[in-house]
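Before we proceed, please read the two lines closing this message. Tell me what the C-alpha cell row says about the fold.
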Amino acid sequence: MTFSRRSQVGSTETNALTLALASARAEARFLDLTASNPTTAGLPYDQAAILSALDQRAALVYEPQPLGLASAREVVAKRLGIDPARVAITASTSEAYAVLFKAFCDPGDEVLVPSPSYPLLDWLASFEGITLRRYPLVYAGSWHVDVEALARAVGPKTRAIVAVAPNNPTGQYLSAHELDAMLAHELPVISDEVFASYPLATRRSDRLATVVHAKEGLVFALSGLSKLAALPQMKLGWIAAGGDPARVNEALARLELVLDAYLSVGAPVQHALPELLHAGELTADAIRRRTKDNLAVARAAAAKHDLVTQLDVEAGWYVTWRVPATMSDEEWALTLLREDGVYVHPGYFFDMSGAHLVLSLLTPEPDFRDGIERIVRRIR
C-alpha cells in the first residue's frame, strides 16, 4: 500500500528527552514548565455561562454559510472595527492557515515563515504540498524581523509571507516598518495574532496590535477562541482580511469557495460566540495576571544570575532564557528533567540556535516559582 509523502510520520526513533519525559510522567514526579492547555492549568472559568451559551434552539437549524453565520462574523468584526464582510469563520487557526494556503498556493509553491517560531507550520505546509522558506528574527535587546534577509528569501515560487505577531515563543509584535517591508513584495501577509490580547508590557508605539487595518496590499489577521477566550475545545477561529478593497474582495471569493467545500464550523459554537467571548474574559484576565506575575518571577531570578539572560518579550505565554553553552539546550532540558524534575522546552524545538530554554508563563504560579528555583540551582 502506498501513502502520500506529505503524511509520512517521520522517524520512529524516540529521542532521549521524549523517553525521559515518558518516564517522569509514569512516576508523576516532575514540574511541567511547558504548559499550553489553559483548560488544565488551574484557571477560573465561568462554567455556567459557557454551558448556557451552547444551549440555543437556533443551533438545531442547519444554515450552511461558507464564510460563517452572519451573527458570528458580526461579533468578530465589531471587536476588530471592520466590516463583517471581511471576516471568514473557521474551525481553528490551523484550518485558517490551510484555507489560505489552498487559496494562494499550488503544490510546490513556497511560503515565507519566521524563525524561530512554532513548528506546527511545517506540518500545515506539508499537508498542502508546499514548501516553507524561513526568514530570521534577530535579537539585539529586543526581537525584530531581518527585512533584508526576508527580501533575499523571496523567490519566484513565493506566494505568501507569514508573520506570527506576537510570535511564539519570542513574543514580539510586528512593527509598522516590518509590515511595510513585507507588503513591498506584493505578496499577501498572513498574520497569526492569537496571542495579541496577552501583552506583557506596554506595547511600543511602533508595534501593531493587528495588521487588519492596512490600507494597501493584502493582509489576513488570524485568531480565535483557543487563546482569546482560552477555549481551545470549542474549535472556532477566524480570518479577517484587510488592505486594498479590490484584492480583499477577490481573496474572500476564493476563501468562500474553499470553505464551502468543507463547512467545518459547527452551528452551536457560532451561535454561542458572543456569550463565549464574554465569558472568556474571566479566564483571559486570570491568564494576563498569571503570565505577568510569572514573568516578574523569572526576570528577578535571571537578574540575580550572571549565567542566565532573560530575552525581552512583549506578549504571549512564553519567556526564553539564554543559558550557558556548556551543554546543548537539549542536554540542559534533559538534565533538568532527570536531575531536578523540571520539564522545559529546549530552544531547538522552535528553531532557535544556541543554548536556550523556553518556559511557559501559563504554568500555575507555585509550580513556576519552584521550577525557576530548581533551574537556577542547576545552572550554578
The longest strand covers residues 131-139. The first helix runs from residue 16 to 27. The radius of gyration is 21 Å. The chain is about 40% helix and 15% strand.
